[in-house]
Amino acid sequence: MNVPVKTEKLHDCRDAFAETLERLASADQTIVAVCNDSVGSSKLGGFKAKFPDRLVNVGIAEQNMVGVGAGLANGGRLPFVCAASCFLTGRSLEQIKADISYSNANVKLVGISSGMAYGELGPTHHSIEDFAWTRVLPNLPVIAPCDRIETAAAVAWAASYAGPCFLRLSRVGVPDLLPEGHVFVPGKANLLREGMDLTLIANGTLTHRIVKAADLLLQHGVKARVLNMATVRPIDEEAIIAAASETGAILTAEEHSIFGGLGSAVAEVVVDHRPVPMTRLGVPGVYAHTGSAEALLDDFGMAPQAIVEAALELIKRKSS
Q1: CB-based burial of residue 295 (10 Å sphere; 0-12 exposed, 13-18 middle, 19+ buried)?
Q2: To 10 degrees, what angle do helices 237-247 and 262-273 make?
Q3: What is the torsion angle, in degrees rounded to the nearest 10, for the CA atoms of residue 179, residue 183, residue 185 and residue 190?
Q4: Rounded to two decimals, what is the model's pTM?
Q5: What is the mean pLDDT of residues 184-191?
Q6: Which of 250, 251, 254 is closest to 297 using CA atoms?
Q7: Which residue, 80, 116, 292, 266, is CA-closest to 205?
Q8: What is the C-alpha to C-alpha distance for residues 171 and 24, in angstroms, rounded to an integer?
Q9: Structural domains in the chain?
Q10: With 60 as the cut, is the pLDDT of residue 2 above it?
């Protein structure tokens, strides 16, 4: 069924994360938060006020932060380890691999302000490699919710899941896409638009853009299937194979490098099971320049109209 964009009011998914974490912590005394001097940017101010003894601020020491999270999990706590995604994943990758993934520690990694959300701070603060770094690690579900509703649902799922996971959240406002009460199911894509001419797949901040592109494509007589693929690992192979078989072409869009991210994960399934023409939109293997996150997405060809143009070119390839 088609799921309309309910409102153009924009929401910061960090707020949904914080509100859900506080609610869960009120009912579960084992929940703790760990951060790297990022109480404000991780939206943990309310958590700190309500549970001052359950917030561990390690300072700007991300590798230590992940180790502390693992230790807390080993001690029976349920830690949500929060930091800017660029530093959480890039600086702490060895600890994530050894202390979290290899050890299968019950730690919830929360990458805040992912993608190009810190646009004006430049490449050192962009996090356009984190899908690639994390999705290769065993035991680590990788999740990028598309709106505040899916964020809240994913946080609730993470708290109930007996194992590690990586939640990738942005600070860029996005509209609501999913219905209230949505239940997050890992490895399951959400069908937002029905269509048989091609399939558009995205997650995070790009999902609402491909929904808009699908609506614009109707003006060209093109009915695009739209999938919100929040879980990059485990990925919904069934939905991808069906999209390839039934629509004959797939376009992916992501706030990430085109290498190693969502597009690569989808392409792996396609080439193994049902090869069809594909287009992968994202940052094309370069360091992104400075500028607002929205402007950077536009600059890299991910404005809704640019997605339309890429989709029309892909359909030409499909037909040739």
Answers
A1: middle
A2: 70
A3: -10
A4: 0.96
A5: 98
A6: 254
A7: 116
A8: 21
A9: 13-168 (3.40.50.970), 190-319 (3.40.50.920)
A10: no
DSSP 172-234: S-B---SPTT----TT--EEEE--SSEEEEE-GGGHHHHHHHHHHHGGGT--EEEEE--EEES
Angle ∠(27,102,232) on CA atoms, nearest 5: 70
d(CA 203, CA 205): 6
Give, to the nearest 10 degrees, the angle between helix 13-27 and helix 148-160. Answer: 30
Q: Residue 119 gets which letter from DSSP?
A: G
Token duo for residue 156? 């609730």
For residues 242 and 269, the answer to whether their CB atoms sit within 8 Å is no
Query: What confidence tens digit (pLDDT) does each residue in 188-236 have?
Result: 999 999 999 999 999 999 999 999 999 999 999 999 999 999 999 999 9
Beta pairing class for 108-112 and 165-168: parallel
d(CA 199, CA 52): 47
Cis peptide before 234 (omega within 30 of 0): yes
Tokens of residue 293, six digits: 């996150």
